[in-house]
């Protein structure tokens, strides 16, 4: 653990140097913004509002009304003529990996990779994510604390981040990223490169799990990510395996609950998810192979399902990964409608990992949800509902205030869309053309008007 802590400290120093060297400064933005003549999607409704005016003061929505709103025409006031466009909450993606989504596997394996290079890639990814209209994300594992701190300080442009920190995995689990020559830290005393980079904690037994969870909480994790089953992108674990004993998993849940937050698990199969439910886990990430019995258990125990819309395997994908993905791909078409009809609490994310070229397609993963949901349900899912999942972090939530809605007193994370996504959900797939204004925390990130 000391080696890991030392690496975190070095990474923070290098990353801070990178920020200073590239001259990132906090932008000066208007303190008052008035949107005139907009149609509001409030995050939950099935129809747009009548033509309305929305006043933002500081980082909060102060007033929404169909009446004119008088404001002082001062230099720090920006008046935006909406001309009937749609004002909606910023998009939320609850399963990203801001650092490892910005790096390829070749990048990660390169001996030339440094914390500064990884930080630079993550910073670019963060800025591009925000410009796609994602004002908030939940990072589901990896080096994140330094990037989040830089964004919150205004030194880098990027979304709000709910950080998990390093994933917690058993030996030979989905988070065991060791190269073949790297041997067990427990037996041979050497911390693996992935652990040094803050990607994962390989933790076996109740004591190690408690320490790993508490380390992440110490660094500022808003929730804990635990590997409870096999994965498609990992080398050692078949997709069907169940990971962590009930006692180990309960240890993670107890440590998280003592800090007022929750554990989310990576899991696909009924056996892995049922064990997680018994342990007190609050969120299941993935779950594409679940059956009706397990989904009913999730409803009974008020457990969330955070899942994705996965695309078919590509010809250049590793054959082993193609084979591991097949049952997951087959299961997702059953999962979404079955979970919806049974009343499971649903959230949506993308989960891009080690494929940087996919990031620019983030928005295009929203419209395929139309196979199972109405446009209004999709908009609610990627705004209000995802925000409700984030709220499970309770007092460990890194930001105070309401997200995912356009309401008086809510945080001003807003998109002005050129068109009506309630009638054409594909508008969300082209943020460069259709998001004419992007606002995060009351600040104008993009303003083409």
UniProtKB/TrEMBL annotation:
Lineage: superkingdom: Bacteria
Pfam families in UniProt: Amidohydro_1
Domain Amidohydrolase-related: 86-445
Molecular function via GO: hydrolase activity, acting on carbon-nitrogen (but not peptide) bonds
Keyword match Transmembrane: no
Keywords assigned: Hydrolase
Gene3D superfamilies: Metal-dependent hydrolases, Urease, subunit C, domain 1
Keyword Hydrolase on entry: yes
Protein name: Hydrolase
Organism: Aliidiomarina iranensis
């Amino acid at each position: 653990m000391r080696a890991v802590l030392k690496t975190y400290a070095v990474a923070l120093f290098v990353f801070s140097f990178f920020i200073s060297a590239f001259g990132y400064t906090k932008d000066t933005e208007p303190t008052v913004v008035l949107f005139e003549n907009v149609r509001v999607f409030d995050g939950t409704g099935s129809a747009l509002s009548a033509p309305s005016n929305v006043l933002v003061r500081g980082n909060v929505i102060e007033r929404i009304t169909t009446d004119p709103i008088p404001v002082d025409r001062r230099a720090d006031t920006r008046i935006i003529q909406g001309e009937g466009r749609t004002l909606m909450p910023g998009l939320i993606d609850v399963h990203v990996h801001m650092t490892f989504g910005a790096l390829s596997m070749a990048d990660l394996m390169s001996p030339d990779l440094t914390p500064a290079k990884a930080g630079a890639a993550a910073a670019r990814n963060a800025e591009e994510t925000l410009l796609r209209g994602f004002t908030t994300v939940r990072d589901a594992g990896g080096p994140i604390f330094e990037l989040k701190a830089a964004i919150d300080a205004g030194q880098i442009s990027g979304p709000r981040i709910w950080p998990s920190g390093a994933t917690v995995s058993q030996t030979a689990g989905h988070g065991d990223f060791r190269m073949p020559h790297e041997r067990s830290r427990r037996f041979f005393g050497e911390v693996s490169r992935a652990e040094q980079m803050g990607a994962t904690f390989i933790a076996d037994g109740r004591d190690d799990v408690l320490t790993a969870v508490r380390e992440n909480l110490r660094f500022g994790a808003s929730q804990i990510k635990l590997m409870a089953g096999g994965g498609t992108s990992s080398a050692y674990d078949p997709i069907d395996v169940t990971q962590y004993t009930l006692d180990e998993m309960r240890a993670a849940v107890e440590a998280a609950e003592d800090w007022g937050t929750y554990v989310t698990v990576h899991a696909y199969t009924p056996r892995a998810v049922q064990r997680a439910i018994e342990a007190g886990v609050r969120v299941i990430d993935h779950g594409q192979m679940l059956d009706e019995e397990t989904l009913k258990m999730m409803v009974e125990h008020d457990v969330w399902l955070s899942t994705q819309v996965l695309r078919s395997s590509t010809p250049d994908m590793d054959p082993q990964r193609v084979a591991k993905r097949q049952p997951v791909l087959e299961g997702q078409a059953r999962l979404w409608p079955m979970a919806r009809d049974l009343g499971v609490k649903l959230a949506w994310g993308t989960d891009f990992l080690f494929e940087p070229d996919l990031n620019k397609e983030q928005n295009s993963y929203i419209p395929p949800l139309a196979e199972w949901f109405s446009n209004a349900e999709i908009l609610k899912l990627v705004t209000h509902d995802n925000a409700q999942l984030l709220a499970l972090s309770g007092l460990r939530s890194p930001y105070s205030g309401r997200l995912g809605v356009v309401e008086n007193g809510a945080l001003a994370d807003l998109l002005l869309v050129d068109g009506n996504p309630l009638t054409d959900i594909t508008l969300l797939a082209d943020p460069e053309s259709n998001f004419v204004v992007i606002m995060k925390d009351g600040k104008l990130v993009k303003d083409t008007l």
